Amino acid sequence: MTNGNTETIDARPASNFLREHIAEDVRTRKYGDAVIQTRFPPEPNGYLHIGHAKAICIDFGLADEFAGKTNLRFDDTNPEKEEQEYVDAIQQDIRWLGFDWEKLCFASDYFGQLYEWAIQLVKAGKAYVDDLTADEIRLYRGTLTEPGKDSPYRNRSVEENLDLFVRMKKGEFPDGSRVLRAKIDMASPNLNMRDPVMYRILHATHHRTGDEWCIYPMYDFAHGQSDSIEHVTHSMCSLEFADHQPLYRWYIEQLGIFPSQQIEFDRLSITYTLLSKRRLLQLVQEKHVSGWDDPRMPTLSGLRRRGFTPEAIRSFVAAAGVSRTNGIVDIEMLEHFQRDDLNRRASRAMAVLHPLKVVIDNYPEGQEEMVEVQNNPEDPSAGTRQVPFSREIYIEQDDFREVPPPKYYRLSPGKEVRLRNAYFITAQSVQKDATGNVAEVHCTYDPASRGGQSPDGRRVKSTMHWVSARHAMTAEIRIYDKLFSKPDPGEVEEGKTFLDNLNPNSLEILSGAKLEPSLAGARVEDRFQFERVGYFCLDPDSTPGNLVFNRTLALKDSWAKIEKKAS
Ligand code: ATP
Ligand code: MG
User: Among 28, 179, 439, 452, which has the minimal tally of Cβ within 10 Å of its Cβ?
Assistant: First the structure.
């Protein structure tokens, strides 16, 4: 089901307890001839983030390994927070990640069946209608150290419960006035087993069932039974559901339906990253970011717009592994997998982000020529292209120092360097603007060094990228940094919120970058390595006259490191 290519990045992941669990069930024929069936169950209340990518890779990946099937099931039991926009975006993101589902399902498809099962439990004396308010229910529930108290409505007769529940469904009662609860054990050490709510009254329009229902099942009453209806054999979910597993089993056992098995694994957490739809929604709604697909967001659509690839995300998730305890992964690890992938696949191009004009005084005015450049030195099959060269070019401001510090090997007066694939040039003089900044560097070139080699074997210590001034395209470059400035963005001092941990410098816009003209043909989401600068991806905000590139990641800059050490 995956798009191939993963194995080139990393060896197959080591075995893990989920895989072993399934293998054991296959070996013992726990489910007879039934195929291994998994599901991915997002709630359509936001866009998918990279934490969901982990669950997706587990659900789809393991089913695939065992020749099984995976359903996509929307857990749409909460009409107030759910929207069609999210349903569409989630499907698009799963496909982008490289997976496809067997069946597209919705928990709301099962509302009729779930209602019948609720009636069955009422008739069996296993469920009752409670008139306590939500606050009272909370008070009666007790705490981790104290048992709960029975509701005064707990011992209603089956007839009365049946009558009230049917009338709840008919819409006779206002929101919040009554709930249906499972009759389990108010003294259970597991709070989830203290007569959990099964149904609540909510006169809300649902994105699929409209106004057909005014009672909605709780997650716990919907999830296990939905698994059972779909004959899900292995229902894998993150650890916070572990305490819900006894309830998951209780419903299935009481109803005598297909015994799906829930298994929990650790949630993915990444430094400098928030993975909670509720908080991501807040960032969107309060406009701290430009939308769910802002390239700084850890959503799949944000990462995609930033230039991340599904292959790298899958490799990262596989390398992060699964465990039975929650941990935290360094964001550098994700970046490592992405650089590795792009280094192998991204076409090279020359782009000057902070341009400084260089005039080659002995290069004939009006002359121009094409130099041949390899598209990707890591991949000879990517071929070559022609790049125009002329008398005036741009180089990076950082590639010239009028007074070079020690160990500075780039261009400075009297120093010779190589312009990649073009010529050796030597700086002769500078021209300054009114404020005393270097506005132009005047150089001479060695015509014999065409292609970047000198026939006399002369060596230079630096090779620099450049763009011909006359042919350059001006573009906007968006430089992204981490969205949060704290490794744990959720860690806040008293009186502050996670918003106080936002990095004020997470986006820098450069408007005057100079690009080689071949980039005019770039299409949205095309990814490049701008030589010596970093990885970039064409943003959908681009127009033919104004290209916008997002920086996916910087290359590791050795000079920045030397400078940092020295300071
Ligand atoms: P959030 O906490 O961001 O709101 P959620 O768990 O409420 O996420 P769901 O739509 O309910 O989001 O999640 C769908 C599936 O994805 C669930 O099985 C859940 O266990 C899994 N999942 C969500 N976040 C993570 C994560 N960070 N790491 C691994 N799995 C996750
Ligand atoms: Mg959830």
Answer: 28
| 108 CB-near residues (< 8 Å, 6+ apart) | 74, 76, 77, 206, 208, 209
Query: Given 19, 30, 154, 267, which residue is catalytic?
Result: 267
pLDDT tens digits for range 490-518: 999 999 999 999 999 999 999 999 999 99
Ligand 1 nearest atom to the CA of residue 276, by list position: 3
State phi, psi for 164 to the nearest 5 degrees.
-65, -40
Strands 438-446 and 355-360, sheet pairing: parallel
pTM above 0.85, yes or no: yes
Token pair belonging to 7? 């194995």
How are beta strands 424-432 and 179-182 bridged, if at all? Answer: unpaired
Cβ contact 545:473 at 8 Å: no
Kindly give the number of the ligand 1 atom that is closest to the alpha carbon of 41.
14
Quickly count helices (H) and strands (E) in the chain: 14, 25
CA distances from 563 to 56, 353, 401, 409 (A): 42, 20, 14, 13
Could you say which DSSP state residue 14 is in? P
238 Cβ closer than 6 Å to some ligand 1 atom:
yes
CB within 8 Å of 2: residues ≥ 6 apart: 60, 61, 64, 98, 99, 314
Ligand 1 mutation target, pool 16, 59, 238, 280, most atoms within 8 A of CB: 238
Gap from CA of 210 to ligand 1 centroid (Å): 26
- What count of other Cβ atoms lies within 10 Å of the Cβ of residue 183? 20
Chain centroid offset of residue 311 CA: 12
Q: What pLDDT, in 10s, does the model give residues 363-410?
A: 999 999 999 999 999 999 999 999 999 999 999 999 999 999 999 999
| Strand arrangement of the beta sheet that strand 534-538 belongs to | 347-349, 527-530, 534-538, 548-554, 473-480, 507-515, 351-352
Q: Is 483 left (phi over 0), alpha (psi -120 to 50) or beta?
A: alpha
Tens digit of each residue's pLDDT (9 = 90 or more) over 122-169 = 999 999 999 999 999 999 999 999 999 999 999 999 999 999 999 999
Backbone angles phi, psi at 417, to 5 degrees: -135, 170
For 385-402, the three-class secondary structure string (H helix, E strand, C coil) is: EEEEEECEEEEEHHHECC
